[in-house]
Structure formats: C-alpha cells, structure tokens
Amino acid sequence: VRTRPIRTLARGADGSIWIGTGGGLERLVHGRRTLFAADPGPGNSAVLAISPGRNGRLWVATVAWLGVVENGALRRFVPDRAPGGTVLSLAEGPDGTLFVGTDQGLFRISNDLKACERIPGLRNEFVSALVADGNGALWAGTNGGLHRIGRDGRVESLTSKDGLPSDMVQTLLLDRDGNLWFGTRGGGLGRLRDG
Q1: Strand-pair partners of 174
Q2: What are phi and psi of 160, to 5 degrees?
Q3: Region class of 78: left (phi > 0), else alpha (psi between -120 and 50), else beta
Q4: Largest CA-CA distance found in the chain, in angstroms, rounded
Q5: Which element (helix H / strand E) includes 146?
Q6: Is 161 helix (H, G, I), strand (E, B) or coil?
Q7: pTM of this prediction?
Q8: How many CB atoms lie within 10 A of CB 43?
Q9: Over its length of 195 residues, how does the chain's per-residue pLDDT go in tens digits?
C-alpha cells in the first residue's frame, strides 16, 4: 500500500481521527485507516484543511473545492463568491458560520453556505491557522502575527513587538482551560492565558 503524504489531522466528535492526505480524506477508527472519500468531482483531491464543527460536522477543503461531512456523507458546496487563494485553515464559529483562511486573506461563509465575504483588518493576508474560542471570538494565525476578531468585527493584533516569539504563527490550539497555544516558525511555542 502506497502511503500518501498527510497534510492535516482532526479529531471527530465520535473519537475517530480524520486524515487529510494528498489523495483524499481518510478516517481512522479503532486502529483501522480507510479512505473515506477521494475527490468526488473534477479537480485535485489533495485535502489541505479539515476542521470539526458543531453537531458532528467535519469541514473539508481541497485544492479545488469546499465540503462538509454530515450524517456519514461528504457534500461539496460552492458559495456565491469563492474565497480567494489556496485554503490553509478552517474553523466554525459558535453560530455555525464557517471561517476560511487562505494565502490571500480571511473569509466568512454564511450558515446557508451561499454568501462569502472577506474579513478586513488583518496585518497580513496569509492565514495559516484559525480557532474559535468560547467567547465568540475568532483567532487567526498569520505571517504577520496573531489576530483576534471579536463578535463586533473589531480586529486586535499581537506581534513580536508585543512579545510573541515570532510573527509567523503556523498553528493554534485552544485548551480546555481556555488558554490559546500557538506554534510559530522560528520562535517555538507560545501561550496566551485566558483573560
């Protein structure tokens, strides 16, 4: 069996592990790894980002399309205006809104998966990591630092000038205590305590 490069991982609501590879979406359940879905249509099947959502949903982005796994099936969707650039990160907000980070900015897709709008105000448009916190804010890791987008749309930024170990934030994790962990390129691991 040829091993495909693993690009992204996520834990499902049922404890399974979802694996985004260069050849599609795989699922690991009880130690058994199976291909869940290859590309269901034209375009490249490389899965670039996956993110768990509410009610057991799993958001999926490939080079060519966006999709959601619900009730055991993968469904592709096309917003009225596609997010610009290559998708690098996904996160679902508390109200079910899907946030999409690309190499050309941050976008919000409405609950009905039709409307897509750019979120302005980031210091850098390369959005490599996203996570929504329990207070309704969205955190975005970029090549220009860490950004917090509040419910009111106001953007606050933290950079190396504010004490970040590096402005190149690559990954984000919100722990059960509400602390935000971030991995950076060239600066190691950092943490913002809740509050």
Answers
A1: 180
A2: -60, -25
A3: beta
A4: 50
A5: strand 145-149
A6: helix
A7: 0.89
A8: 12
A9: 456 788 899 998 888 999 998 888 999 999 898 888 765 555 567 899 999 998 889 999 988 889 999 988 889 888 888 888 899 999 999 888 999 999 999 999 998 999 999 999 998 999 999 999 988 899 999 999 999 999 888 999 999 999 999 999 999 999 989 899 999 998 899 999 876
